Amino acid sequence: MKKISANILDGKFEHLVDEDNLQITHLQIKKGEEVPRHKSDKNVVVVIYKGKVDFKGENGSEIIRPGDIITMDPNEMHALEAIEDSDLMVIKAKI
């Protein structure tokens, strides 16, 4: 077992795990900030645990709040816009 703790950031990101087949990123985005349209070559799971985000995917957009989870297949285009100061965990894995 290994415990990994996220740091308090100021609107940035940090890779908590960065391996060939697994990447776990703690992402903080401030109200009004956007993460531009992009994609990943891995499966993606996004877990929001603070704030509110407009998550824009290939099939429309969803407002996500704590308790919501987004899953994506590899190479799905997506973008995010923070409606409130927000904290998310982004898990990317080759499965």
TrEMBL record:
Taking every annotated instance into account, which residue ranges of this chain make up the domain AraC-type arabinose-binding/dimerisation? Answer: 31-86
Q: Which residues form a coiled coil?
A: none
Keywords tagged on the record: DNA-binding
Pfam families on file: AraC_binding
Q: Which SUPFAM superfamilies match?
A: RmlC-like cupins
Q: Please, which domain of life does this record's source organism belong to?
A: Bacteria
Under InterPro entries, the record lists: AraC-bd (IPR003313), RmlC-like_jellyroll (IPR014710), RmlC_Cupin_sf (IPR011051)
Q: What is this protein called?
A: AraC family ligand binding domain-containing protein
